[in-house]
Design goal:
Strand content: 25-35%
Order of helices and strands: EEEHEEEHEEEEHEHEHEHEHEHEHEHE
Number of domains: 2
Structural class: alpha/beta
Helix content: 25-40%
CATH superfamily of the largest domain: Medium-chain alcohol dehydrogenases, catalytic domain
Largest sheet: 7 strands, mixed
CATH architecture of the largest domain: Alpha-Beta Complex
CATH topology of the largest domain: Quinone Oxidoreductase, Chain A, domain 1
Number of strands: 18
Number of helices: 10
Shape: globular
């Protein structure tokens, strides 16, 4: 039987999240029902409200980072049981498509349904309704909800010793930032790395670059609060602009430039990428992790420099991570004290405060906010 759940929804763009009472389906075959303990306030969910990430249906329940406890299991689910603790993976993993078989789970073919708000196997079927009308789920998850029914392929079982009020960020932001440095930028020992934008993803990228052995990590952010936080994480330098970062990188490398520049700003433009491109040494890499407006095109880079200096512009979805491997790995690193997750959580909110959480994000007062459910 369907259950009732309170959730934060956005009803159109541009809009703000508001709390609503919805009907939620019990799990079908291959699905699980999860009681949420925490949900991260990722910038991508704000993009759904602003329209930078268009959705096929409104209203839609936001949230794609979450951690909770399995309450009910649908037919055909063997890897999860009632009472299991889980972290949601931002991307469900089928394990069978070309991309999963090649070790690129972040590109799983199930991603085709990410912006539909519907079940991935049936674009006309929605798990949530309001007064009989369908309501979408961000990323097929909708973690800004007391309960969520999701594909079992998007639920990663974790040890019950992990603090569910903290680890929801591992389902997207942490792996995205960390992987942007470790996987996409392929940072090596002794490298000089620029991270452009110090929010939740940028903070994770700083830590990933340091873990991979970078000698110098140059954090870029206009806000002193975020620059100071990057230094606390271990960044060697923190500056206001990407032009300053380029000068620092060249000063550290006998004029050559950064080995990698990772772009993690709130809404990326072609100019951001071009500015990062200008800081690189020969054969350096710009990693573009940020979301752009849906109609954005063009990167104004000097084409001779692209060819003759052999520079690379690399996109990064979910930090090129494999959720079934990387989420448990990052959890272990956190539990072993090798990743600072606790201090990344600047403010906690109730479900009714989601809109305020995003106002705080725009005001630049948070590294990352987290919703804590009663």
């Amino acid at each position: 039987m369907p259950i009732t759940t309170r959730a934060a929804v956005v009803r159109g763009t541009p809009g703000e999240y508001e709390t609503a009472t919805l009907r939620l389906d019990e799990p079908r075959s291959g699905e699980v029902l999860v009681r949420l303990v925490s949900a991260g306030l990722c910038h991508s969910d704000d993009h759904v409200a602003t329209g930078d990430i268009p959705y096929a249906i409104y209203p839609v329940v936001g949230g794609h980072e979450g951690a909770g406890i399995v309450e009910q299991v649908g037919d055909g689910v063997s890897e999860l049981s009632v009472g299991d603790h889980i972290i949601f993976s931002y991307l469900a993993v089928c394990g069978r498509c070309r991309w999963c078989a090649a070790g690129m789970q972040n590109l799983c073919d199930q991603g085709i349904a990410m912006q539909t708000g519907a079940r991935p196997d049936d674009p006309s079927s929605y798990r949530l309704t309001e007064d009989g009308a369908p309501v979408g789920q961000m990323g097929g998850l909708g973690t800004f909800s007391e309960y969520s029914t999701v594909s079992a392929q998007a639920a990663i079982k974790i040890d019950k010793s992990a603090p569910l009020d903290k680890v929801s960020l591992l389902g997207c932001g942490v792996c995205t930032g960390w992987g942007s440095a470790v996987n996409s930028a392929a940072v090596r020992i002794g490298d000089t790395v620029i991270v452009m934008g110090i929010g939740g993803i940028g903070s994770s990228a700083v830590q990933g670059a340091l873990h991979a052995g970078a000698s110098h990590v140059i954090a870029v952010d206009p806000l002193a609060f975020k620059r100071d936080f990057a230094v606390k994480l271990g960044a060697s330098h923190a500056v206001q602009t990407i032009a300053e970062a380029g000068d620092v990188a060249r000063g550290l490398t006998n004029g050559q430039g950064a080995d990698a520049a990772i772009v993690t700003v709130g809404v990326v433009t072609g100019q951001h990428i071009a500015d990062a491109f200008s800081t690189l040494r020969k054969a350096g890499t710009v990693v573009v992790t940020s979301v752009s407006k849906s109609d954005a095109v063009g990167i104004p880079v000097p084409l001779p420099e692209l060819t003759f200096f052999q520079k690379r512009i690399q996109g990064a979805l979910f930090g090129a991570s494999n959720p079934t491997y990387d989420i448990p790995k990052m959890l272990r690193l956190y539990q072993e004290g090798q990743f600072d997750l606790d201090n990344m959580i600047t403010t906690t909110y109730s479900l009714d405060q989601v809109a305020q959480g995003y106002r705080d994000l725009h005001a630049g007062t948070n590294i990352r906010g987290v919703v804590i459910f009663d």
